[in-house]
Q: What sequence folds into this?
């Protein structure tokens, strides 16, 4: 939604903002700004959702007994750890990406994990992260001035130059309306498993690493004086923002 003067300008914008050039069809639009074009866009979006869901339902992998059994075991083990793990239909981006496994011998999850550093427009995907590893240890290769990779350190310079006390780890609360996004603050000194307990996870955890002085638009649950207290799961019957985003990515 930005104006550009040339192809070079477009390429620089996409690189700087990690933009793929595709309009966000699920972006929030207030009632006062809602027009006939927005209505038509929503209508076409819902039609596309229907076609995508139908195609996913027809996918042979969906009806595979092995796939169903593995997903059931994964969700069941997560539930015993007090984690509400939810999986998306075949065809969704996060379903294809997810490499999370459970080791029955060690009785331990090895998570597929995504780290997002919004102030530097950077994302990193980790595979096979043991659930007993602390968040501080997970972040060391990225924001620790001594142990981080030089290339990564340079890209995340804003974080590596900030004091550890200013770094905050957040995780978006699922099943909330798009105009009421809230985040849970995680404890860097505790394990990944401890931090995920009591929370809803769609496919795999996505952690947002932010600086307290710059996270203006990221509201932590319980820190908004205008918001009444509610369940940390943010119970709602509407489609979660992650699911909407995954539908958009699939289309």
A:
């Amino acid at each position: 939604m930005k104006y550009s003067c040339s192809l070079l300008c477009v390429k620089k914008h996409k690189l700087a903002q990690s933009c793929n050039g595709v309009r966000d069809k699920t972006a929030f639009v207030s009632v006062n700004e809602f027009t006939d074009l927005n209505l038509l866009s929503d209508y076409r979006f819902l039609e596309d959702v229907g076609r995508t869901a139908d195609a996913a339902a027809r996918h042979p992998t969906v009806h595979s007994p092995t796939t169903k059994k593995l997903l059931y075991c994964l969700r069941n083990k997560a539930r015993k750890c007090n984690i509400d793990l939810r999986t998306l239909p075949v065809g969704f981006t996060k379903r294809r990406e997810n490499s999370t496994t459970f080791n029955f011998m060690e009785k331990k999850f090895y998570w597929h994990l995504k780290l997002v550093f919004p102030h530097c427009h950077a994302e990193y995907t980790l595979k096979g992260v043991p659930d007993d590893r602390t968040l501080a240890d997970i972040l060391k290769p990225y924001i620790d001035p001594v142990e981080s990779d030089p290339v990564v350190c340079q890209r995340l310079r804003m974080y590596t130059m900030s004091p550890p006390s200013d770094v905050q780890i957040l995780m978006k609360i699922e099943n909330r309306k798009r105009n009421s996004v809230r985040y849970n603050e995680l404890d860097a000194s505790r394990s990944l498993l401890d931090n995920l307990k009591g929370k809803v996870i769609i496919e795999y955890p996505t952690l947002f690493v932010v600086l307290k002085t710059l996270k203006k638009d990221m509201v932590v649950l319980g820190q908004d004086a205008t918001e009444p207290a509610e369940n940390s799961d943010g119970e709602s019957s509407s489609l979660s923002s992650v699911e909407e985003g995954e539908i958009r990515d699939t289309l």
